[in-house]
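subagent[fold] <- orchestrator: predict structure for attached chain, return tokens only, no commentary.
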Amino acid sequence: MSEIPMPPVVSSFETLTLERPAPHVLLVTLDRQEARNALNTRMGLDLMTLFEQFQVTAGDTRAIVLTGRGDKAFCAGGDLKERRSMSDETWTVQHKIFERMSRAIHASPLPVIAAVNGAAYGGGCEIAAACDFIYAAASARFALTEVTLGIMPGIGGTQHVARAIGARRAKELLLTGTPFGAEEGERWGLVNRVCADDALVSEALATAGRIAANAPIAVRQIKQSVSRGLDMSVWDGLAFEIEAYNRMVPTEDRHEGVNAFNEKRPPQFKGR
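subagent[fold] -> orchestrator:
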């Protein structure tokens, strides 16, 4: 049987910077600092391409940290300068790119940690909320301001945020467009950890490194079990969980984990 040809891996992007700060960890930086890392069409395409690649092959990547360039903004939302002269048709086409981008982040088989280093407004808040969890700098600010522009969140804001903080709080924020800080976000359940500004990325990378040191198959199955199970009844979720669990029983990593524990050494997981 002939091998299936793999699509080429794209590793260079106009609006993103990719770094490998630790084994199996990918640091992705939104890199339009001059525009407060606002989401334009090119960034939407870049993020879409990057995260859709992981559906086919992750290479040696096991965990991802997503942050913004500079200390002012994670992502200030959609680039309204680019959008100002758009026709309705062009706006719609661009938004389809943003929809696909957001779903690619949410559907990533690899854990994605948002390291929110500043303002995460509109689409920026939605990108962060699409990640598996959020670390935020103490100075970070969040807002879903679309209603003040005559529109509404359209790349997951009404869904991911409501699932994180509850329907009543989400409705208040979505209907008023009121900004809130990192500590409020943590108290409400949107933010996992508030970090000192200068320690944000290092703390997020430390957590990503800890995840990446664990068995890759187990990590992926846990992520899928939680994400999909929350949309099921508890009985269906339990059934899904045990099917995911049984996939790990015959793996090399399961044997390696048990052997390493008994031999009092760190495990060397291979993702097999």
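orchestrator: received. Logging for downstream: Residues 75 and 124 are 4 Å apart (CA to CA). The radius of gyration is 19 Å.
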